[in-house]
Design a protein that fits this description.
300 residues; 23% strand; 12 strands; alpha+beta; 5-stranded mixed sheet; 7-stranded mixed sheet
Length: 300
């Protein structure tokens, strides 16, 4: 286990203990003395599973009256069981209840399995929500503007977990990968969900750290004889960057006077994080002018 695993595992265990303590205390406070009835078996089992997640073995005290028995799990939970239901209630446990203690190991196993399944299911909506955040929508929209204006000759491989042009499939694949990687590790699943909710960097988590970017695209387009490469990426810290590489430096130089972009040799960057459709229109005009100039030179 590396340093990250040790730290995050300890943090996760402590967080779960605190959360479970509050959960059990809240349940006990709300329920008070719950009753074991055929119609309420699910409620009783849920309460017992919550106890099991705190610890496996519990001290018991049983007080009887003419109608039934009150079973007290230390100071956390008490269950009133009518005499006619005692046999069914007792069968819920692996050992006799008159020994003063009870082992809830089987309920711990069930509870942890259910908790893990719930966490795995939370991954899908959490990731889907993430990819609908503002930066991702901007990347989608600007890519749409680019394609509408300059078309697509080909897509180049970008080192991204999810690609703009196959967003839905990419998210589905990422969800499956995360569920496979952390399928038996509720601690790391919980940490990942927390990081997603708080927009914390994701590059420390398995399934993310092998890629440079969380989301993006790299599109090769052509305008007559000029090749253009549009790139938009969002890194693991949710930073959106864009660029356009133009294989004609003369065309790139014509863009230097524009206040909303920065030109470094033949690469164009937006000043305000992303390109606008208005800039794409002006770029199209510059490309058309360059073509006209080339044609004029040929005629001479």
């Amino acid at each position: 286990m590396n340093a990250f695993d040790r730290i995050t595992s300890g943090r996760s265990r402590n967080r779960r203990r605190r959360r479970l303590s509050r959960q059990v205390a809240a349940e006990a406070t709300v329920m008070g003395d719950i009753a074991y009835l055929p119609s309420g078996v699910g409620t009783v089992k849920a309460a017992v599973k919550s106890l099991a997640k705190l610890k496996k073995k519990w001290g018991l005290e049983i007080i009887g009256d003419s109608r039934g028995r009150k079973v007290m799990f230390e100071d956390q939970l008490s269950i009133y069981v009518p005499h006619e239901c005692w046999a069914d209630f007792s069968s819920m446990f692996d050992s006799a209840l008159d020994k003063g203690t009870v082992d809830l190991s089987k309920y711990l196993t069930e509870a942890l399995g259910e908790e893990l399944d719930e966490l795995k299911e939370e991954i899908r909506p959490a990731l889907t929500t993430l990819f609908e955040e503002e930066e991702f929508i901007v990347a989608d929209k600007v890519t749409e503007y680019w394609i509408a204006r300059f078309g697509v000759r080909s897509y180049q491989r970008a080192n991204c977990l999810v690609r703009v042009e196959s967003k839905r499939k990419g998210i589905q694949r990422l969800v499956s990968d995360i569920q496979r990687i952390y399928g038996r590790d509720p601690g790391h699943l919980e940490l990942l969900l927390e990081a997603l909710a708080n927009r914390e960097p994701l590059n420390a988590f398995e399934g993310f750290k092998k890629q440079d970017f969380l989301y993006g695209t790299r599109i090769v387009s052509e305008h007559e004889t000029c090749q253009l490469v549009f790139e938009a990426t969002i890194d693991m810290a949710y930073l959106l960057t864009m660029s356009i590489t133009i294989d004609d430096e003369d065309v790139a130089e014509e863009l230097e006077y524009m206040s909303d972009v920065k030109v470094v040799r033949n690469v164009v960057y937006p000043i305000q994080q992303y390109f606008t459709s208005q800039f794409f229109s002006r770029l199209d005009d510059v490309l058309e002018d360059a073509i006209d100039s080339d044609k004029d030179r040929e005629l001479r």
